[in-house]
Amino acid sequence: MNLLVTGGAGFIGANFVRYWNAEHPGDGVTVLDALTYAGNRANLDGVTHDFVHGDIGDTALVEGLLADRGIDTIVHFAAESHVDRSIHGPDAFIETNVLGTHSLLKAARTVWLAGNGRPHRFHHVSTDEVYGSLGPDDPAFNETTPYAPNSPYSASKAASDHLVRAYHHTYGLAVTTSNCSNNYGPYQFPEKLIPLFLINALHGRPLPIYGDGMQVRDWLHVDDHCRGISAVLANGKVGETYNIGGGAELPNLTVIDTLCAAADAAFTADRGLAARFPDAPAANGAPTASLKTTVADRPGHDRRYAIDERRARDELGYAPQRTFAQGFAATLDWYLSNEGWWRGVLDGSYRDWVATNYAGR
Ligand code: NAD
Ligand code: TYD
Closest by alpha carbon to 106, among 45, 50, 167, 35? Predict the structure, then answer.
């Protein structure tokens, strides 16, 4: 296969390129990424790929890439991806997630359908947030759950899902879509819950818990997500959508308590951590949990997400391979071993954005 991976310098995209390199070393991989605050060339260090710095909204650029490089598969990750940012500034989400995805679809249609007619696949990576929020006893989201997005982020992803669907039904573009739950793992930008709280804990900064902390998410290790996308590319039916979950539905407070206990244990096991992170409570004999701080709830905060993974399991043979305990332990190790990566990220534009938007938190 000859892949165009959009957003391949971001968290999941970079993990996917790494995964694909290892599983399919003979395949071509072109990464198209605009290198927003969330994109980082260092995420692809040591990985075989061609890198194109550009915007998915540049239809002519994408048409050229598809035609000149003989691309047969697009795996579309590029997006604005953080709910809190979408609350502060929704415009970029409409620009990239809706208009950008549409531009990509137009380019694919021009080159693959009107142009060379080659067998192709447009795989769109989406989120379970398009289905809205569940009550405690509601059944989990399946692929026929009606869309009910609640944040500008999820609304923009829902719009892009509908456009992908429409390009299949109207024009015959060979599309698949996956809607997955909350990812975590290496290279995740420290604005999302797990890496933000880990790095705050190492610096002795507050862990800002929104509202009562009893919101429920299904946690999916990014390697399992990559496995799921790979299964859709191999065996998914064109025109279908697949929900991909981690089988780990947990309230935020449980995730946070796991994180605090794991940080304490890591400092006990490795005395060198106290010298590296002298401001961490665990370096001074205090529990990491002492940093837990309740802050105002996120406006419109979805209460619960849960994934019914039966279609992916029955049709694709997909099942997550890591429990949350295993995946979380590996993730903590990665962040402790890759201090240079996250310090580099924090030295960039993110720090300024946090200072502006989270002043006083
Ligand atoms: P991310 O924010 O870490 O990375 C996004 C990447 O897209 C960055 O490299 C960025 O530079 C690039 N990008 C942004 N705008 C672009 C544009 N206009 N043109 C080209 N590149 C652009 O995001 P992520 O967490 O890796 O998420 C990847 C995809 O998976 C997104 O579509 C997201 O909606 C979806 N998703 C994420 C999660 C999650 O938990 N992170 C869960 C479900 C679905
Ligand atoms: P997040 O990682 O932003 O993912 P999403 O909003 O897409 O689910 O947040 C995960 C959960 O953690 C969500 O319920 C919001 C909560 N949260 C906090 O309580 N504090 C924080 O600082 C962040 C970033 C998230």
Answer: 167
